[in-house]
Amino acid sequence: MIDYLTGADSRMFAQALILIQSLEEAGAHGLVRVCDFGLDAGQRRFLESRGQLAFADPPLPSRFHHAWYHKATIVDCARPDAETVMWIDADMMLMADPRPHVDALVSAMRRDGCRVAAAPDCTPSIGDYILTARAKGYDVDPFVQRLAEYGISQEHPYLNAGLYVADSREVMDTYKRLTFETREHAMWEQNAFNVAAWRDPRQVVTLDRGVWNLFNADLKEASLAGDGRGILCRGLQVLVVHVAGDFCEPIMKTIDVRGCRFSSRLRAHTEPHLREFQIGLFERFVTENQDALVEML
């Protein structure tokens, strides 16, 4: 069994609705569950009524308030009988049903003895990430120390933890442990993910970022497919668009729902065609779920 998970607090709730709607329109109804990273009571009731609420068991102590601590506890949110977990950041949109792609990926991973798959971040290697972070004045010394502790080469790709497939609870347990044990620093949760993955390079599948995690500068090479819904990047069909990096901005979106005002702060694409598609998903979700949203409000 593969468990598809995302996560949100009250501020990212609307972003998660866009992800849910993208999956609905791709034919993957109810596929993703939303981990409670700090949702309010109405938001929890709304997701629970749809069978799309997940929470950590055991619950995360309240002193660990940062969302990145919550994200590292996905192993505690996954269904007990799930052999594999696919994590999808809430600020993503799915352009097609991911299940055939993930099924094929997991089959290949098991054939080859791999346990984790993710796409590289914008910085090509771990070493490049460290140089870039230090040039901006960020503290990454704890990450460098962990790399040395595990004998991990800085030449490996620096993986983006916005989307990953983990076919191992042991890898996810290590990811969680390292996130909680390492002193907070720039991107420490994602750095912990990289250490958990690369401590054994044989277990890692490096995904094509343009297909599995399209964001930032790659968006310059993206174009709408002929059907108006699909997106192509370097001639390949894009599966996942990530609303992150330098090509997004915060906006306020307000929709009247049966006399109530549903206002949400969204992270929106600056690319016009992607922004239009993204806002359309949000508007359609609200329109199709008016009664339940009114009860939530």
CATH fold node name of the largest domain? Spore Coat Polysaccharide Biosynthesis Protein SpsA, Chain A
Radius of gyration: 19 Å
Domain module tally: 2
Shape verdict: globular
The CATH architecture category of the largest domain equals: Alpha-Beta Complex
**CATH homolog superfamily of the largest domain:** Spore Coat Polysaccharide Biosynthesis Protein SpsA, Chain A
Number of helices: 12
Structural class: alpha/beta
H-E string:
EHEHEHHEEHEHHEHHEHEEEEEEHH
Largest sheet: 7 strands, mixed
Percent of residues in helices comes to 25-40%
Strand order of the largest sheet: 3-2-1-4-7-6-8
- Strand tally is 14
Oligomer: single chain
Q: Mean pLDDT across all residues, rounded?
A: 92
User: Uncertain spans, ≥5 residues at pLDDT below 50?
Assistant: none
Kindly describe this structure:
The chain has 297 residues and is α/β, with parallel strands linked by helices. The protein folds into 2 domains: 2-209, Spore Coat Polysaccharide Biosynthesis Protein SpsA, Chain A (Alpha-Beta Complex), CATH 3.90.550.10; 216-296, no CATH class. It is built from 12 helices and 14 strands. The protein has helices at residues 13-25, 41-49, 67-72, 74-77, 99-112, 126-135, 141-150, 169-181, 188-198, 209-212, 272-288, 290-296, and strands spanning 2-8, 32-36, 53-54, 84-88, 92-94, 116-120, 159-166, 204-206, 222-224, 231-233, 236-237, 240-242, 248-257, 260-269. The protein is globular, with a radius of gyration of 19 Å. The two termini are 35 Å apart.
